[in-house]
Specification:
By secondary structure, the chain is of the alpha/beta class. The chain has one domain. It contains nine helices and seven strands, in the order ββααβββββααααααα. The protein has a five-stranded mixed beta sheet with strand order 1-3-7-6-2, with helices on one face. A two-stranded antiparallel ribbon has the order 4-5. Strand 6 and strand 7 form a beta hairpin. The longest helix has 24 residues.
């Protein structure tokens, strides 16, 4: 994906290195902790990896606390290497590695795209902050732990990313590539759009009154809509897409489907526990956004069939 002509976004900050490491559950494409799990601990069990989170003892990650949106100026030069490279940042300055610089340019592209869409709707777009960290740090939603993969926190309108996850996408999920990495970020921006439009708060209220199965189904629709929004972003940047990019995105969407991950983790599938959608559904809604380029086509809540 061609992004080299874009200046890195200034809505970024580098939180630096914390403690952590070990097993990672992988990108679940969530908000407020791998799914728009919002601020409430009871929703933990509705998350895709709620049971894994309990096992690894990071439930505190989902506790709601206050936070501030910050930004820092990116440096002009990136370190040498590839997007998937996991070299540590040279300091607490955002966008100062190849992987961070790429992510910062993706964020710039989403700012341009959603800024235009919001202006067409007569609204002003407030961009999220992209927070880089290594290992473990904190967010407005509690602990930021790299083991959980990228996530969106509505408390501080922040996307949290340890860029070493890009390498894991390539080596552990066989879902690498620039467009796949961009899809990860665009999906999290999709959760930010849901927060700005009120969809996130509406779903949270509905989940509070719902059974666990019903809450899971609502969460699936949230995640698939964020996938579709990522497709809308890509559709409106077709001039930047290179041969093979779409295939990379589809491989990534396939790799993080509930059925695929459950089959890998436990050898069987339990559909009632889905919170992100099957591989087929995730690819379908990403493709819908790509083909339409229209956020209105992403109303998963009105869709009779996902």
């Amino acid at each position: 994906m061609r992004l080299d002509d874009l200046d890195p976004s200034r809505n970024t900050r580098d939180l630096g290195r914390g403690s952590g490491g070990g097993f990672r559950s992988g990108f679940r494409g969530g908000g407020g902790g791998l799914g728009m799990l919002f601020q409430f601990l009871p929703l933990l069990l509705r998350s895709k990896f709620g049971w894994v989170i309990i096992v690894i003892g990071v439930a505190a990650y989902f506790l709601f606390s206050g936070g501030l949106q910050c930004s820092s100026a990116p440096v002009d030069q990136a370190s040498s290497g590839t997007v998937g490279e996991t070299a540590a940042s040279s300091g607490n300055e955002a966008c100062d590695t190849e992987a961070e610089l790429f992510a910062c340019r993706v964020l710039t592209s989403t700012e341009q795209t959603w800024g235009q869409i919001f202006r067409q709707q007569g609204r002003q777009y407030a961009a999220p902050t992209l927070n880089f960290y290594e290992g473990r740090n904190s967010s407005g939603c509690g602990a930021a732990d790299a083991r959980m993969g990228p996530f969106y926190c509505p408390a501080d309108s922040g996307i949290y990313l340890d860029t070493s996850f890009f390498r894991e996408m390539e080596t552990q999920m066989q879902a690498g590539g620039d467009f796949a990495y961009a899809y990860v970020i665009a999906h999290e921006v999709g959760h930010h759009i849901q927060y700005l439009t009120g969809t996130a708060n509406d779903v949270r209220r509905r989940q509070e009154r719902a059974s666990q199965t019903e809450g899971n189904q609502l969460q699936v629709r949230m995640e698939l809509q964020a996938d579709c929004y990522a497709g809308v972003w890509a559709a409106r940047n077709r001039d930047r897409i290179e041969p093979g990019d779409i295939e990379e995105g589809m491989r990534a969407a396939n790799a993080i489907g509930d059925d695929t991950l459950q089959r890998q983790a436990q050898g069987y599938v339990v559909e009632d526990s889905f919170t992100h959608g099957s591989s087929e559904q995730r690819m379908r809604w990403l493709r819908r956004g790509l083909e339409s380029g229209d956020p209105a086509a992403c109303d998963t809540f009105a869709a009779r069939s996902l």
